[in-house]
Amino acid sequence: MKIYSDDCRVYLGSLSREHAAAISEIGNDPSIAHDIAAPGVFPSPYKEENAIEFIKYASDMLNEGTEYHFGIFLKADSTFIGAMGFMHVDRVNKKAELGYWIGKRYQGHGYATEALNIMLHFGFLNLGLERVYAQTFSFNEGSKHLLEHIGFTMEGKLRKNTLLDEGFVDDYVYGLLKGEFKATDRFIKIE
Fold this sequence. Notes:
Blueprint: E1 2-5, E2 10-13, H1 20-27, H2 30-36, H3 48-64, E3 68-74, E4 80-90, E5 95-102, H4 111-126, E6 131-137, H5 141-150, E7 153-164, E8 167-177, E9 188-190
Parallel strand pairs: 5-6
Antiparallel strand pairs: 1-2, 1-9, 2-3, 3-4, 4-5, 6-8, 7-8
Helix pairs in contact: 1-3
């Protein structure tokens, strides 16, 4: 599956085994694991075997329609730069949790903003979601800025919710409702 917009520099695409080396190369930065997940959730070091396991999991979940994990790729040359997905998709209550990460050298260029806009269009318009939520560590300023820039509202703080190597940290919970999403006239294409 490929989800894209003509006016974006990135696209979201299904992952295959051919992407394993690129995923492990980009994901092997220890700061990514530290910034997005509790120890052990996002492996560090991130080896090619970890990427292969994730690709299989993502493919299985996509086929079941229970989770939607995609690679973020540069449209110009199909370079893998990160991953984004909906987890805990609740079709009864029409909600899902958003997760994402992007390689450090690709941060600060607006790629994550474009990918997130595509993902939200897909979630609200194609999956019929009414609510998307995300959690981020209190110290992850880039993630908080991205969510707020797109229109998410900080709904709460889970105090000392995650134990990292340096001690307990707070998690911030953000939410975005379909009616709050400032959908552009961007046309999302799915192949």
